[in-house]
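A student in our group prepared the protein record below, which I am reviewing. This is what I was given:
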Amino acid sequence: VASILNKKTGWQVRVHTKAGNLTVEWPENGRLKLTSTANIVAEGNYLEA
């Protein structure tokens, strides 16, 4: 967001992190949108009381 506000990048940026890639989009006069992948990290069952 800071790079967009300071006009260092365009309105869409791809950020590379240890956790994976993140796409940041901020259309002019619009809402910030973050897009990435989702991974299953655990599975399980629960008992109903």
Observations:
- Strands lie at 12-17, 20-25, 33-35.
